Q: What sequence folds into this?
């Protein structure tokens, strides 16, 4: 059960930081020039950054940025990708061919490079990062949904629903979608981890949040410049990012095993 | 502290731990940027200009006050539009053995002036109407209008005429008559030069990351570095026994620029409020570790048109708030500005601090950081409200026309803020028309006082030059403009082991 509770605890802390962060009495953007790169102390438990802001406070605000970006992107990408995948596979013909060609075009580019290009073209800013990552992220959901629908669209219950006069929309979203939920949820869990890293990467490149807003990626980017003189600036956001990604991946693994019919059969 | 030391030790071990300080006699100089072009007819970036000074000679140079002084030639003003340059009798031949003559000077400047060659330096020299070579040692320049600053413009390295005619690729194989000979360029990060006087080899290495540059210096993989370091790393090296440090007040001018056509920052009161709201002293002390000096004008007081009597805007948030109220803004209706900057780390840090300080007086600033190409494109096109930049390598006051005259709006000049002011135009024109240098400097001082009053720029500071070297490196003299001329005299002191080895080889 450690595979469940440890990641849940880490993700719980992350979520709480993200949700109640704005209500906390913290001052992430308060600059005290006399505290530039001051090491951790009793008053500032993670020290101060390169312009004298509390790293602890910024870590909490950065958690919110990562959380919002990760879930916004996964929400948009999974809805768009799943719908397109289901529609393409269910209708078949030219609709499916068109979908496959579009997916091929997107897959021809390395995902993160395409996101960098899109974010670069749209300009820096967190909204543009969400759009860029969603533009890249939907493809995985579309492929997964399409392959699953192709496998089950001729199933007996679908044929029965069709015989009873159910509309295409009802069949797709009432009789097919629930059967895709397990693989989609697993894909979604791994998607969150990759988006957290991608957001950090884009912010690291200066395409994410703009000053004075905080994100873990931008904190790591700023911190790497001071590894010789103030390593604490990069350690705090680096460890936070690593823990969250680790927790999501472990939880995703656990969910895959839990939803796997074969492993359930073995255990039973 | 223990954790800190352990991490630093680990980084050192992982990155440079496998290499030992090199024992050969080559001196290694770490650079942040590559010299983009070693052909002085086309080079425009600061690193190329500094390296080209080592490879080529130019007719004139500058003294501490940025006044032109003889280098390859002395000169005489025959008439307001006729200058005669006499080449120094004892001058070095070109690196390929040919003598440098007046014909080479003419060939170099004729090439730059030929519009079909697209030299970026042509626009600064278009006042030359003709060049004559009466003898091998004399060059006559004829101008199409009088300009007492003309000798200051003749800073292009001289190339051999016969190689210019054969289109020699100087950018790949530079041949000049400078103190250094170009040896080779094994790859895109290494340039090898040889000092002619003592056959000392110097290797220029491009190491863009400042932390890696510092680690290589500490590990002895390179011997010296100059500038382009975060102030914290300079302070860190300052405490290391293995490293010596030289500092010198520089003339690179940092400023905040405004779009004066903008309805908000176009108002003088708003710009004055911004000037009063920025605590420059505090930023210089805490962020820049006192490696800069407050500026009140484009030229430092030591420059021949500089003015030490100018008094800038003191840090006065109360006055700033009062000015904003007079302009019709208050807490309910704050001033909203967009501040554009590049992604350069130190510029972003300054921008964030300025944003915070302006917020304290009721100015809501949104920062937009872009890569250099996008940022510079926006600035040239006037797509900004407020931005920060630096002027590097300013020497002659003709820059005032280029930057502040109403006829210099891009693409014709660098009046990027669309500053249109009849008094500034009049003073610039008066100064340029005056042939008496004393009178000229007086008018330029009046112009700078006027600019400080009307604030097309808010002056920030002059950045300091810093040179860091291993303790056994001696003889490098840091120049006022940050060039690399110190390489002419730098030497490595033999270590005690090397001395013992040398002694044991004595007969």
A:
């Amino acid at each position: 059960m450690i595979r469940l509770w440890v990641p849940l605890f880490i993700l719980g802390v992350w979520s709480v930081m993200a949700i109640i962060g704005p209500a906390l009495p913290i001052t992430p953007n308060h600059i005290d020039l006399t505290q530039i790169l001051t090491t951790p102390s009793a008053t500032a438990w993670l020290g101060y950054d390169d312009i004298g802001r509390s790293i602890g406070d910024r870590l909490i605000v950065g958690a919110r940025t990562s959380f919002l970006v990760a879930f916004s992107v996964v929400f948009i990408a999974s809805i768009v990708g799943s719908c397109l995948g289901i529609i393409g596979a269910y209708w078949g013909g030219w609709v499916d061919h068109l979908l496959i060609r579009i997916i091929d075009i997107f897959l021809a580019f390395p995902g993160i490079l395409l996101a960098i290009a899109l974010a670069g073209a749209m300009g820096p800013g967190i909204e543009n990062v969400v759009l860029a990552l969603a533009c890249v992220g939907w493809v995985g959901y579309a492929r997964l949904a399409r392959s699953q629908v192709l496998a089950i669209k001729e199933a007996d219950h679908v044929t029965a629903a069709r015989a009873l006069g159910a509309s295409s929309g009802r069949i797709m979203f009432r009789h097919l979608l629930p059967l895709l939920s397990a693989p989609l949820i697993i894909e979604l869990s791994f998607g969150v981890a990759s988006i957290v890293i991608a957001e950090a990467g884009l912010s690291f490149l200066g395409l994410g949040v703009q000053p004075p807003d905080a994100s873990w990626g931008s904190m790591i980017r700023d911190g790497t410049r001071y590894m010789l003189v103030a390593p604490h600036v990069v350690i705090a956001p680096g460890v936070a990012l690593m823990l969250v990604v680790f927790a999501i991946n472990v939880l995703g693994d656990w969910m895959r095993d839990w939803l796997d019919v074969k492993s359930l059969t073995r255990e039973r | 502290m223990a954790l800190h030391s352990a991490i630093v030790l680990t980084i050192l071990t992982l990155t440079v731990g496998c290499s030992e300080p090199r024992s050969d006699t080559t001196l290694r100089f770490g650079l942040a940027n590559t010299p983009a072009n070693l052909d002085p007819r086309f080079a425009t970036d600061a690193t190329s200009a500094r390296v080209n000074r080592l490879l080529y000679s130019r007719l004139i140079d500058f003294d501490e006050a940025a006044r032109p002084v003889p280098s390859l030639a002395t000169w005489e003003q025959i008439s307001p539009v006729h200058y005669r340059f006499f080449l120094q009798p004892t001058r070095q031949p070109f690196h390929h053995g040919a003598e440098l003559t007046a014909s080479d000077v003419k060939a170099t400047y004729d090439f730059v002036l030929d519009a079909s060659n697209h030299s970026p330096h042509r626009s600064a020299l278009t006042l030359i109407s003709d060049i004559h070579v009466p003898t091998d040692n004399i060059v006559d320049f004829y101008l199409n209008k009088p300009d007492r600053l003309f000798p200051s413009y003749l800073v292009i390295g001289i190339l051999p005429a016969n190689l210019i005619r054969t289109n020699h690729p100087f950018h790949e194989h530079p041949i000049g008559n400078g103190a250094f000979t170009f040896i080779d360029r094994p790859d895109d990060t290494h340039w090898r030069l040889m000092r002619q006087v003592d056959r000392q080899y110097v290797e220029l290495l491009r190491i863009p990351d400042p932390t890696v540059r510092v680690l290589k210096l500490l590990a002895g993989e390179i011997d010296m570095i100059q500038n382009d370091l975060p102030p914290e790393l300079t302070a860190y090296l300052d405490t290391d026994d293995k490293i010596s440090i030289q500092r010198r007040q520089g003339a690179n001018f940092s400023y905040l620029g405004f779009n004066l056509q903008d309805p908000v920052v176009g108002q003088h009161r708003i710009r004055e409020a911004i000037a009063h709201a920025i605590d420059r002293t505090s930023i210089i002390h805490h962020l820049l570790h006192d490696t800069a000096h407050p500026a009140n004008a484009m030229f430092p007081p030591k420059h021949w048109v500089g003015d030490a009597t100018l008094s800038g805007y003191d840090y006065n948030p109360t006055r700033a708030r009062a000015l904003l109220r007079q302009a019709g803004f208050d807490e309910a209706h704050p001033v909203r500005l967009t501040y554009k900057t590049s992604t350069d780390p130190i510029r972003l840090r300054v921008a964030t601090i300025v944003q915070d300080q302006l917020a304290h007086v009721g100015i809501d600033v949104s920062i937009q950081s872009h890569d250099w190409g996008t940022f510079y494109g926006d600035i040239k096109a006037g797509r900004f409200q407020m931005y920060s930049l630096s002027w590097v390598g300013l020497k002659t006051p003709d820059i005032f026309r280029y930057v502040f005259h109403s006829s210099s709006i891009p693409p014709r000049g660098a009046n990027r803020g669309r500053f249109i002011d009849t008094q500034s135009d009049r003073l610039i024109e008066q100064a340029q028309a005056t042939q008496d240098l004393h009178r000229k400097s007086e008018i330029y001082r009046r112009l700078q006082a006027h600019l400080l009053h009307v604030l097309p720029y808010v002056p920030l500071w002059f950045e300091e030059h810093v040179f860091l070297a291993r303790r056994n490196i001696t003889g490098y003299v840091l120049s006022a403009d940050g060039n690399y001329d110190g390489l002419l005299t730098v030497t490595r002191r033999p270590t005690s082991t090397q001395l013992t080895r040398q002694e044991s080889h004595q007969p």
User: Anything to note?
Assistant: Chain B touches chain A at residues 3-4, 7-8, 11, 210-211, 214-215, 230, 232-233, 235-236, 282-283, 285-287, 343, 345, 348-349, 351-353, 355-356, 366-371 (CB under 8 Å). Chain B has three domains: 2-9+26-35+177-249+465-504, 46-165, 251-463. Chain B has a mean pLDDT of 90. The domain at 251-463 of chain B is CATH 3.10.105.10 (Dipeptide-binding Protein; domain 3).
